[in-house]
């Protein structure tokens, strides 16, 4: 069965997860399937993006045989160390222990649905080849700077603005046999190379795609990963460097009053779900000084942002100023909190000491490996390093 035609989720439970159905509908899931079969088996072409189970049902289903495994979230009222080890071996992606902050659960499921399993171990390569870009009624050409199965960077004279949906068409020679079109959202404008100020660089995050398109993108990325990108003869008005420079770390000036306090009011914005999903951060190694977050194509070194960190159920999130201090590639980004005042430091320390409601088994899946504690966070505002 194809994955195209809308988001789908599968619930395997005995009534314990019924209250999650309205939340899934709110997140744009068009089909919510349930099964009480104790011998349920996921086929290779399983059509679900998300699998929600209780720990008991999690141990009865195998996802590794799927061509594109759904993101597997196990929700429980309590979880022992032995049970955690069993869930790690079962290949569960996230373990959620109740009580959990409803916003934290919502953001985790949003991230899982709109980023999908391809978020893991994504390679990014430099390409340097022309592509066609369709944005609304406007059609044009751009240079494909970097590419991964999650997104790309585009270089051109009149790049689409941030928030605009685009279609990026790769030629037959670039895509390996037949043309390939992928859809995405422009999430960030990058600094142009010093010698090419006439061109814009933008980052695009791809929208959910079916397995066939993902497989072709994976093959293209693997092909360019074998050697340096080669750039053909530049086209007039579309020239750009074959190896685009990394975003500059120069920081924009900051209003003085913004840095006087380290806690701020939190209010949820109403934006498209797919765009909101790009603003979700999965924080690891949370400390008083900052945290490491999974790779996010909308962020770069030097960017300043305000994040709402959800930890304890029933508590308002901590809203903190931070900046991206380091990019560790596959290990994610390092955020450093700025000017955290004493009351906020005390509250943050208390929340760090609490048993975390969300755990993520390590990617190694080794027996006995303890899952990592996750802090679910959301980007509230950004100041990009441009």
Topology:
Elements: E1 7-12, H1 20-26, E2 29-35, E3 50-53, H2 55-58, E4 71-76, H3 81-89, E5 94-97, H4 102-115, E6 125-135, E7 138-147, E8 151-156, E9 165-170, H5 172-175, E10 180-190, E11 200-206, H6 211-225, H7 273-277, E12 280-284, E13 290-293, E14 304-310, E15 318-327, E16 333-337, H8 342-353, E17 358-360, E18 372-373, E19 375-383
Parallel strand pairs: 1-2, 1-3, 3-4, 4-5
Antiparallel strand pairs: 5-17, 6-7, 6-9, 7-8, 8-11, 9-10, 10-11, 12-13, 12-19, 13-16, 14-15, 14-19, 15-16, 17-18
What report would you give on this structure?
This protein is an alpha+beta fold. The chain has 3 domains: 7-98, Rossmann fold (3-Layer(aba) Sandwich); 125-225, Beta Barrel (Thrombin, subunit H), CATH 2.40.10.220; 256-383, Thrombin, subunit H (Beta Barrel). Helices cover 18% and strands 32% of the residues. The chain contains 8 helices and 19 strands. The chain has helices spanning 20-26, 55-58, 81-89, 102-115, 172-175, 211-225, 273-277, 342-353, and strands spanning 7-12, 29-35, 50-53, 71-76, 94-97, 125-135, 138-147, 151-156, 165-170, 180-190, 200-206, 280-284, 290-293, 304-310, 318-327, 333-337, 358-360, 372-373, 375-383. A 7-stranded mixed sheet has the order 2-1-3-4-5-17-18. The chain is globular, with a radius of gyration of 21 Å.
Summarize the structure.
The protein is an alpha+beta fold and 386 residues long. Strands 2-1-3-4-5-17-18 form a 7-stranded mixed beta sheet. It has a 6-stranded antiparallel β-barrel with strand order 6-7-8-11-10-9. 40% of the residues are buried.
